[in-house]
Amino acid sequence: MQLRRFDSLQEFCDRAQDYLLQYEAEHNLLLGILHTLRHYPERYPEPPYLAIVEADHRVLAVAIHTPLYKLVLSKAMDLDALQLIAHDIQEYGKPIPGVSGLVTEVATFLLSWQALTGQAYRRVMEMRIHQLTQVQPVVTAKGHLRLATERDRALLLDWFKAFIAEIGEVVSETPERMVETGLKRQSVHLWDNGTPVSWASGSQSLPTAARIGPVYTPLEYRRQGYATACVAALSQKLLDQGCDQCFLFTDLANSTSNHIYQQIGYYPVCDWHDYSFIFEGKGTAN
Question: In whole angstroms, what is the distance from residue 37 CA to residue 42 CA?
């Protein structure tokens, strides 16, 4: 078993993509990151960390870290591969704010990481990956789906700030940059009922699939079916554009959103945990 770190994005993709596509749902975030690195490299100010652990020419695990963001781990065919990744990240020498991945893989990595560094960590969110191949009929709220435009920039900025404050997590990317990226990629969609009432981001970022998220509805417009209508319409739009399926993450603590998405036709595939590292000795592991 050996780890190989890549400087060439193309070489990394050539070696990792087939493995990632074998478990497309579990790897939809990693595949989405690779899509961004290929098509919107200006989003990241520094080169990414790209690593693959192999044995007998077989991929065992993949890891990606883009500047300012958390390390993202793939499904591991051998959990010992995660120890190699932890050691290599330590040698890499650049700070990472946390780690995100499938439950067992993240837990295994954290054990190795804390043994190496003594660094504490905290679980930020327990999530579940959902998949959709067909939108189910739902009662549609009044309004229609539309693509966000430059005229919506100020509103989107306010909503992004409110979304970040509500999830209670430090986000490395500024709201201004998030809005700029979303408008440039034409990935931000609004449900408009005379005025925008809900927002969902989504675009095709996998070879034959799309990723949806985040989704946000301001407090004053909640419980009126706007988010359900927005996500259902966006999912159908992406399927109509040629995607075979759509993926999204849900917060397991939010029973409402989990119920809504399942009504639309999303079904659970696997669980995903997100952790932040604690710097300067603050806090404890949990």
Answer: 8
**pLDDT one digit per residue (tens) for the chain, 286 residues:** 999 999 999 999 999 999 999 999 999 999 999 999 998 888 788 899 999 999 999 999 999 999 889 999 999 999 999 999 999 999 998 889 999 999 999 999 999 999 999 999 999 999 999 999 999 998 789 999 999 999 999 999 999 888 888 876 655 567 788 888 889 889 999 999 999 999 999 999 999 999 999 999 999 999 999 999 999 999 999 999 999 999 999 999 888 888 889 999 999 999 999 999 997 644 444 4
Give kind and range of the element (H or E) at residue 96.
none
- Tell me, what amino acid is at 220? E
- One-letter amino acid at 2 equals Q
Q: How many whole angstroms from its chain centre is CA 204?
A: 13
- 259 exposure class (CB count in 10 Å sphere: 0-12, 13-18, 19+): exposed
